[in-house]
Design goal:
The protein has about 270 residues and is α/β, with parallel strands linked by helices. Helices cover about 40% and strands about 15% of the residues. It contains nine helices and eleven strands. It starts with a strand and ends with a strand.
Length: about 270
């Protein structure tokens, strides 16, 4: 499709979008959808933010392997499955246990999961919270494990609001994995603007357009793009429920803003369902 960056998201049900994002908790979401690529995440927000757990439930990791192999059979390389990682930005130190920090546990899982054939795995670079040396070490250790892997993800920037830190992580990941596709979790629009020169073989995901679900993103992404939503809302089918029209309008306004920032028309990828 020629887009400089793929924007992965879970769009409103009224919209068909080429790059889908979901979690293994809702893996069936992509079945039956018309898409180019999809990413299936491990569900870190649910387990470590909402539930405050220190690790994934054992039964979940067992099911994870089975579902990942099924997704590989169904979709091949079109669906990238995230190796279950451990963030340190929700509650720093939360997942440390048994002498292992979040980096140790993330790398342990990568070793275990990428040995499973038939799955387009997406290994994640983690680090201790806002720790540059930890991120460097994590890149070095991951490189020793996976080598020149086709794709890697940066998982340390999702909740970070410090733009210099986010750019440092992405640039460092590119230096260690010059030939890999890099996916950055949860980039803000402000950082996206700074990344225009780094856009080759990079993607990001976000649900920041969903005003009702993620209000805490307001400070990070700003509200200016939302001013276009009422005008878009008025042009959408009146037969749709008002809440669905609003959600669709916010999504379309967000995509318009991405287009303005990147200089690439992302609105061309929006297909409204009848």
């Amino acid at each position: 499709m020629g887009a400089p960056l793929r924007f992965y998201t879970k769009p409103p049900e009224t919209v068909e979008w080429p790059w889908l994002f979901t979690t293994m908790l809702d893996w069936k979401y992509i079945v039956g959808k018309d898409f180019e690529y999809a990413i299936v995440d491990s569900g870190v927000e649910y387990f470590f933010h909402r539930q405050g757990l220190r690790d994934y439930p054992r039964h979940y990791l067992m099911k994870y392997r089975e579902r990942a192999k099924l997704l590989g059979k169904l979709f091949g390389d079109r669906v990238w499955v995230v190796t279950p990682d451990y963030p340190d930005d929700y509650v720093p130190g939360l997942t440390y246990e048994g002498g292992m920090d979040n980096v140790d546990k993330t790398l342990r899982n990568i070793k275990q999961f990428i040995s499973i054939d038939g799955v387009a795995w997406l290994p994640v670079i983690q680090s201790r919270y806002m720790n540059t040396f930890s991120f460097l070490e994590s890149c070095e250790r991951l490189r020793e494990i996976i080598g020149d892997y086709p794709r890697v993800a940066v998982g340390t920037v999702c909740k970070a609001l410090k733009h210099t830190w986010i750019l440092y992580c992405i640039k460092t990941a590119r230096a260690y994995f010059p030939h890999s596709w890099i996916h950055a979790f949860g980039l803000t629009l402000k950082v996206l603007k700074m990344m225009r020169s780094l856009a080759m073989r990079i993607s990001f995901d976000s649900m920041a357009w969903d005003y009702g679900e993620l209000r805490h993103y307001d400070r990070a992404v700003g509200d200016s793009w939302r001013r276009k939503a009422p005008e878009i809302y008025a042009k959408l089918p009146a037969r749709w429920p008002s809440s669905l029209r609003a959600k669709t309008a916010y999504f379309m306004a967000y995509v318009e803003r991405i287009s303005e920032i990147t200089g690439h028309d992302y609105t061309q990828y929006i297909r409204l369902r009848a």
